[in-house]
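Pinned message: reference record for Heme chaperone HemW
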Amino acid sequence: MKTSMNLYVHLPFCDHICFYCDFKRKVSISKKEYIDALYKEFTSLNIDSIDTLYFGGGTPSSLSIDELKQIGNWFIPYLSKDYEWTIECNPDSLTKDKIILFKEMGVNRISLGVQSFQDELLQKIGRHHSSFDVYRCINDLRECDLKNISIDLIYALPNQTLKQVQNDVNIFLSLQLPHCSIYSLQIEENSVFGKQHLKPADQDLEADMYDCICQTLKGYHHYEISSFCLNGYESKHNLVYWSDKDFTGIGWGSSGKEKGIRYDHASNYNDYLLDPLKRYFIETTKEDLMFEAIMMSLRTTFGLNVKQFNEKYKIDFYECYKKTIQKYQNYFIQSKDSLVCTQEGRNILNTILIDFLE
Ligand code: SF4
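Predicted structure (tokens):
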């Protein structure tokens, strides 16, 4: 059966490796081989139309104009009427020519990896762009009428002060951009920082930084723990992840969800090239699936759709999780059809989730 889908496309190429990064990405590999494998996987999909399309990586903008055109053209005939098409870009590889191409192809959302506006911090985390590159990109995007721009920022960076975080958020505000995702630095074992045994920031300082971000962005819709937007600029693609819906992932290292069951691709790059159609479904119990649905949806201000949950898992949510809901009742906004965490609830979400898990 053909269906409308939400599609993630993994483009794992980077020009260099950032010190905090643990994603599936490669430098200096044959892009042609990968694009051929990806095309095989793309043609195996039974697509009717695409509602949300997300090119992530790696750094999709590090591909050449011809490569971007080649891949982009596969999807254009399937875009639905109200599609959202996001491409992740880095300021050092996003040129005006690429922006013009994106606009021509119908890309309507750009996610720009800014991380910080402070050049000294950017160098410390192994980024190869400067704040000047960011301003140039935003200017070029606006000149080409690509105004739906989201930027990523990272806080709790090595030796970063509260004032520097405040400064980054203030600059974001001054740019009047519609969307921002802000993450705290995680020291991943396999990243350069992990191998250097870098110590994470002090937990109290990190919490103060998050508070400061939330306070400074009060005028924005804080619709998910790490996401802030002007009204109407919520990421449609990410909302799919948070609302327990199926999505399709293609490309090395990507994941998807089919009939509620998650799948991965080969974790070894050459294995993916040999058999790009192979999906590894992850064994999950009904309880695992229910927990994941609760965990993801409570991150957002839309919360858990209780009606949909009850129908899908053939269960009475409020009855099943009575004890936990009672225990944290002051942290929830409860109605017959939905359960939403308050801001305070989202601040202690990990603690609440432990009870849901039990
Ligand atoms: S953070 Fe992004 S640009 Fe940096 S190495 Fe990782 S995937 Fe590449």
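Pinned by admin. Summary line: The first strand starts at residue 3 and ends at 11.
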